[in-house]
Amino acid sequence: DIPSLAEAYAGLFPIGAAIEPAHTSGLRAELLKKHVNMIVAENAMKPASLQPAEGRFNWEPADRIVEFAKANGMELRFHTLVWHNQVGDWFFLDPEGKPMVDETDPEKREANKKLLLERLERHVRTVVERYKDDIRSWDVVNEVVEPGDPDGMRASPWYRIAGIDYIETAFRAAREAGGPDIKLYINDYGTDSPAKRDRIYELVKELLDKGVPIDGVGHQTHISIHGPSVSQIIESMKKFSELGLDNLVTELDMSLYAWNDRRDYGSDIPEDILRKQADRYRELFEAFRENKDIIGGVVFWGIADDHTWLNNFPVQNRTDAPLLFDRQLHAKPAFWAVIDSA
Ligand code: XIL
């Protein structure tokens, strides 16, 4: 019988995992119950899942995850009210069915912006009102900063139609609907890279100065055994904590490959690679423990290597093994390293 991750980290921070509705029963559910005390929906609470068509809400898959967490005394987090992926196209179509981004007439652009922000506000209010008593921690916006795009803001339909007002609207509506007790996060990947980190910092500071309610930064932390350095990850968190913000590790996993690596270990992962992964997980969690005062929780993007978005990821189409449990749901060297670091 192996130790429990969540118990090992009790008193430091919660340990979480992203799940699908189907994971709420069977062997994987048992693994989750033993090792995590925080749950997030991997897909079921994204805009396209919750509101696939205007005014048609699809609660059932999301509710199953909420019920599972509540039945097992686990905290929940919400992912995500706003994103440029997995969002219904209907949000961005004008009343004639034409893409709002193509509009050139200034008056129509203004009307489109207003309509988009109304749709956004309705989505946020409806969802927050439904789950506010069950979910404390909310990703309000996801991946809105992109240093390579104009103004360093991701050139999504949201931004191209509404500028940064969509971000302000989402946070304000979430606070109004959810009250003072829910915690509101801006979530992104690559937050360790100085360019990304500094642009998020600048954006958050600008919004906070305007009175926009933001409580913390979610660091996806999709990393690899090759990088980035642990010190760079922690440095970014320290910077945000100086603004009085919480930091959450929201989507942790550690790929065996560099992004452009053409290798594929398949089901035959070399020992030394698993050891390397374990060593880096150890270093990471030792740093998390030392910095527990600025870290509100650590959530893995999955629990075992048979189910991870990095398997057959479209770009590289390879087998990966980024989590603490293997394809048979057995503890990997990385699991023991994380236990040792508690
Ligand atoms: C991923 C899911 O894991 C996949 O199942 C889905 O096909 C695509 O989205 N950053 C995020 C998450 O914020 O929502 C993404 O989740 C992974 C990258």
Automatic annotation (TrEMBL):
GO biological process: xylan catabolic process
Enzyme class: hydrolase
Biological or metabolic pathway of the protein: Glycan degradation; xylan degradation
Catalytic activity: Endohydrolysis of (1->4)-beta-D-xylosidic linkages in xylans
Annotated EC: 3.2.1.8
Keyword Transport carried by entry: no
GO molecular function: endo-1,4-beta-xylanase activity
Active-site residues annotated for this sequence: 251
Top-level taxon in the UniProt lineage: Bacteria
Name of the protein: Beta-xylanase
Full-sequence range covered: 96 to 437 of 444
